[in-house]
């Protein structure tokens, strides 16, 4: 037989096959079950309409299914008017009843909204078995929300793929531990009912918004970023995804800080004009065994509707619905006496009751192999097609997809987890929690310097603080300096500047620095617990230094006094010489009288000068004049010298002894009471705000007091109580603000420091009013500056965050933990006491009371000058003596020889007599010396010998 069949011609084989097919079709068709049905769909759901056409064609071309379509009553909804929709449904339904072909089943492909609810109302009221593909989970389909047990058996909802695919977001959020989510979707998904349920009971801040046009995309992305959302999900067609990613690339929404997830029903590849981006693409993936069937379906039935997963879902659901109804009819579970009523016959007393009409069980038991994925039929809201979504990690560089790595998969379900293939790749994809920190440069809290590679980096107390907090919370940050370099002040219109403005306008997440907690700032931002002690305002002034001079001992007396002393010296010396020369009782005029005196001193002019000079020294002037008049002059000079020396010594001790320097300004009150020293805070600083507001408060108090005192409604007694000579409230700050305004407020700290250093002294110049930490650091790093007075208007330093930000609680816990561990005290020790910029200065407490070389060094110069003069004098004496001796020698040589010879004997004799006289005088002196030694002791002997 097999050989005979092979020998048959192809025409004979074709005829034989046709006869066999006809016989089989006749046999099957003879046992086919006739089914009447209504098909309701929205006019916009073209995929559903096309799927129903293919489903009917599929049933006709597959007699093995045993289904014969008896009555087909389609209804296309093109309006949102519920009354019109119900009228169309009733008209079609009434026509089927009149034709004697009431629908066994209603297949509902309406998606959501009014059309879907109208169909649900219609079917529930008339008791028509229905299988719906509408969107919605538990309770979302309001007209089927309160169905009883019998109704749930024949009123069945099966969620379409577009209603299940968004659930992958929940699984990704859980798997990646995402804390913030921004979801954009287009019209290929229905998400209104997902707002409350998609991420329910998950600690994730999220926003769901529909994409409308390009402008709305840019605005929505900006809003997401302003709300600190860095994880983005796009639900839509590949074209929509490309548009969103292109806009994100233009706004620089890619990098370690952001994570992008693209979720689609389409089959194609991801495309975008991204310069450098990595995106997780989630798209459906049919099983390998179904891919061939889908290919045959497209070829045989020209079923090319996209997206494929949605089209095949509608096709499968339509075929399976009719098969379920066929099963009920064939099994005999369809009631034989089932009744139908028209819409006009319907009222509250005439409600069709269906019992034991278990269409759900028969739908669950359909054995027909699905085209795309199996169905899970449970309760309404929990029935769906169990398809698989593939997660690909796509890298796009310069608009080209260079790689696509599969990192996991997800099976459709309401609570199905992500099946991770490459945990490392998916973990690295997570958006890093990255906060934008705004700051102001201020030593030692925030400093910027170059590292060894020449790159700028930030350092300081606050950088170490944020690193400690980062180690506890776990986040990354990018830091930038506020453009206007201000901490934040409010103007008259309520507008802010500085770091506070960055937080208010949501350009920054954290304001880090020596930011004072102020009432008006707390109205627009949130502050953490303080991380630094109370810090007030204080005064910075130039340190007063004692002037030094090598010849300071000459400045003890004024120049006029020194001239008078020199005049008195020369006049007294001259007067003493005159008196000694003219007095008959002086030594030179009465030598015979004083020939036996041991001390014989002739007061020539040279001796008088020497006597007056040495009389002023502890050595003394030596022998006084013999005459009474000369002694009176000497006594007068001694008295004069005693007074001058005593006065000089007292003043010299006062001049040269280093003592504490009195500062003319020691407090804010001292500063306000003087006018020689100008003072001002930085323009726009918290100190400026303090003084300005205090002045305004004083002015307001004055106006209040003036209005009270001039009030005509007061009685004379009440007015008398307000009448005082002095204004009862201080106007100190009003005067200070006026002085500051006239002095001019420096715009930068560097400018303020420069003005302080230009001060001539501590009693004349400029004083800077600012934060004590700023001033303390300047004093620590500069030995020519000093901090004056106590701190006032003290406020704590804290970190500021956006109002309502969850960072406040996280940072509070971290800072309190650092306080308990004494980490903040350690940071203070590092940046204040151990700061490498700290200078060791000579403080007033460490200075001794001794005379420094800088003040007394001129005395040594005087000694060297005196020694120099002595050397010059010695040279002159040597020269003079040699010149004089040579002159005498020349005179002797020019004399006659006999004369020389005659005089030689006389000179020799005279010389011999002179020598004998010197010897006798010396011996007499020695004898007298021994006599005095026996009376006066060794001092007198040494003195006499000298």
UniProtKB/TrEMBL annotation:
SMART domains: Lig_chan-Glu_bd (SM00918), PBPe (SM00079). The record marks 665 as: Crucial to convey clamshell closure to channel opening. Residues 434-834 form the Ionotropic glutamate receptor C-terminal domain. Its main location: membrane. It is a multi-pass membrane protein. It comes from the Eukaryota. Residues 1-30 form the signal peptide. Disulfide bonds join 90-343, 783-841. The keyword Ion transport applies. Keywords: Cell membrane, Disulfide bond, Glycoprotein, Ion channel, Ion transport, Ligand-gated ion channel, Membrane, Receptor, Signal, Transmembrane, Transmembrane helix, Transport. The record marks 692 as: Interaction with the cone snail toxin Con-ikot-ikot. The keyword Nucleotidyltransferase does not apply. SUPFAM superfamilies: Periplasmic binding protein-like I, Periplasmic binding protein-like II, Voltage-gated potassium channels. L-glutamate binds at residues 516, 521, 771. Residues 444-505 form the Ionotropic glutamate receptor L-glutamate and glycine-binding domain. GO terms for cellular component: plasma membrane. GO terms for molecular function: ligand-gated monoatomic ion channel activity; signaling receptor activity. The chain crosses the membrane at residues 561-579, 637-658, 853-881. It is found in: Cell membrane. Belongs to the glutamate-gated ion channel (TC 1.A.10.1) family. PANTHER family: IONOTROPIC GLUTAMATE RECEPTOR. This is Ionotropic receptor 25a. It comes from Bemisia tabaci.
């Amino acid at each position: 037989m097999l050989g005979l069949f092979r020998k048959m011609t192809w025409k004979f084989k074709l005829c034989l096959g046709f006869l066999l097919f006809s016989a089989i079709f006749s046999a099957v068709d003879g046992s086919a079950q006739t089914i009447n049905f209504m098909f309701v769909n929205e006019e916009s759901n073209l995929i559903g309409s096309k799927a129903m056409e293919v489903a009917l064609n599929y049933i006709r071309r597959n007699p093995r299914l045993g289904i014969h379509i008896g009555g087909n009553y389609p209804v296309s909804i093109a309006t949102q008017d519920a009354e019109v929709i119900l009228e169309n449904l009733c008209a079609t339904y009434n026509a089927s009843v009149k034709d004697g072909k009431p629908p066994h089943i209603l297949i509902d492909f309406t998606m959501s909204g009014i059309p879907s609810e109208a169909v649900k109302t219609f079917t529930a009221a008339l008791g028509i078995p229905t299988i719906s593909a509408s969107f919605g989970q538990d309770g979302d389909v309001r007209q089927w929300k309160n169905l009883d047990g019998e109704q749930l058996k024949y009123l069945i909802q099966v969620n379409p793929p577009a209603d299940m695919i968004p659930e992958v977001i929940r699984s990704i959020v859980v798997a990646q531990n995402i804390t913030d989510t921004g979801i954009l979707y287009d019209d290929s998904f229905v998400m209104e009912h997902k707002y409350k349920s998609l991420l329910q009971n998950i600690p994730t801040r999220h926003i769901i918004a529909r994409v409308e046009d390009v402008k709305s995309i840019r605005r929505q992305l900006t809003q997401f970023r302003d709300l600190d959302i860095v994880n983005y999900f796009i639900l839509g067609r590949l074209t929509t995804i490309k548009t969103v990613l292109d806009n994100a690339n233009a706004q620089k929404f890619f990098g370690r800080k952001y994570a992008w997830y693209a979720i689609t029903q389409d089959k194609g590849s991801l495309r975008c004009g991204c310069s450098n981006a990595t995106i997780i693409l989630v798209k459906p993936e049919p099983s390998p065994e179904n891919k061939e069937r889908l290919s045959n379906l497209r070829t045989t039935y020209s079923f090319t509707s996209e997206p494929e997963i949605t089209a095949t879902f509608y096709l499968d659901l339509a075929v399976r619905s009719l098969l379920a109804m066929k099963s009920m009819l064939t099994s005999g579970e369809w009631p034989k006496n089932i009744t139908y009523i028209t819409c006009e016959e319907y009222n509250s007393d005439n409600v069709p009751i269906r019992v034991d009409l278990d269409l759900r069980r028969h739908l669950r038991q359909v054995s027909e192999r699905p085209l795309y994925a199996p169905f899970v039929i449970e309760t309404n809201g929990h029935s769906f097609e169990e398809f698989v979504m593939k997660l690909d990690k796509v890298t796009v560089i310069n608009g080209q997809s260079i790689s696509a790595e599969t990192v996991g998969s997800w099976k459709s379900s309401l609570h199905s987890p992500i099946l991770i293939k490459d945990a490392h790749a998916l973990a690295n994809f997570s958006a890093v929690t990255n906060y934008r920190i705004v700051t102001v440069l201020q030593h030692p809290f925030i400093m910027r310097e170059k590292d060894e590679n020449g790159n700028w980096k930030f350092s300081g107390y606050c950088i170490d603080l944020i690193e400690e907090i980062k180690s506890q919370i776990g986040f990354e940050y990018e830091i930038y300096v506020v453009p206007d370099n201000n901490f934040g002040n409010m103007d008259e219109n309520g507008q802010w500047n500085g770091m506070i403005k960055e937080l208010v306008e949501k350009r920054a997440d954290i304001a880090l620095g020596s930011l004072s907690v102020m009432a008006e700032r707390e109205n627009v931002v949130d502050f953490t617990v303080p991380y630094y002690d109370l810090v007030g305002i204080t005064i910075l002034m130039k340190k007063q230094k004692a002037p030094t001079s090598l010849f300071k001992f000459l400045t003890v007396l004024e120049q006029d006094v020194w001239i008078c002393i020199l005049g008195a010296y020369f006049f007294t010396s001259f007067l003493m010489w005159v008196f000694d020369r003219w007095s008959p009782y002086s030594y030179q005029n009465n030598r015979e009288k004083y020939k036996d005196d041991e001390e014989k001193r002739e007061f020539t002019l040279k001796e008088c000068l020497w006597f007056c000079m040495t009389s002023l020294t502890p050595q003394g002037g030596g022998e006084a004049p013999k005459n009474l008049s000369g002694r009176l002059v000497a006594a007068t000079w001694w008295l004069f010298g005693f007074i001058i020396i005593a006065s000089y010594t007292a003043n010299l001790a006062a001049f040269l002894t280093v003592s504490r320097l009195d500062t003319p300004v020691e407090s804010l009150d001292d500063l306000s009471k003087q006018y020689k020293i100008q003072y001002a805070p930085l323009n726009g600083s918290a100190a400026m705000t303090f003084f300005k507001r205090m002045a305004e408060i004083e002015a307001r108090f004055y106006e209040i007091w003036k209005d009270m005192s001039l009030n005509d409604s007061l009685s004379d007694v009440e007015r008398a109580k307000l009448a005082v000579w002095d204004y009862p409230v201080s106007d100190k700050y009003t005067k200070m603000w006026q002085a500051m305004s006239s002095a001019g407020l420096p715009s930068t700290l560097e400018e303020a420091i420069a003005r302080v250093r230009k001060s001539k002294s501590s009693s004349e110049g400029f004083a800077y009013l600012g934060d004590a930490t700023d001033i303390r650091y300047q004093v620590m790093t500069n030995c020519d500056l000093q901090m004056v007075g106590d701190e006032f208007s003290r406020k704590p330093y804290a970190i500021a965050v956006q109002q309502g930000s969850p960072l406040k609680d996280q940072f509070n816990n971290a800072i309190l933990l650092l306080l308990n561990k004494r980490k903040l005290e350690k940071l203070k020790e590092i940046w204040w006491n151990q700061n490498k910029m700290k200078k060791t200065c000579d403080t007033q407490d460490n200075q001794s009371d001794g005379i420094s070389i800088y003040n007394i060094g001129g005395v040594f110069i005087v000694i060297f000058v005196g020694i120099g003069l002595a050397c010059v004098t010695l040279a002159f004496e040597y020269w003079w003596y040699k010149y004089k001796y040579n002159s005498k020698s020349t005179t002797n040589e020019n004399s006659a020889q006999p004369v020389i010879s005659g005089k030689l004997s006389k000179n020799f004799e005279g010389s011999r007599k002179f020598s004998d006289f010197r010897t006798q005088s010396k011996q007499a002196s020695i004898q007298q010396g021994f006599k005095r030694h026996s009376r006066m002791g060794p001092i007198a002997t040494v003195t006499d010998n000298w």
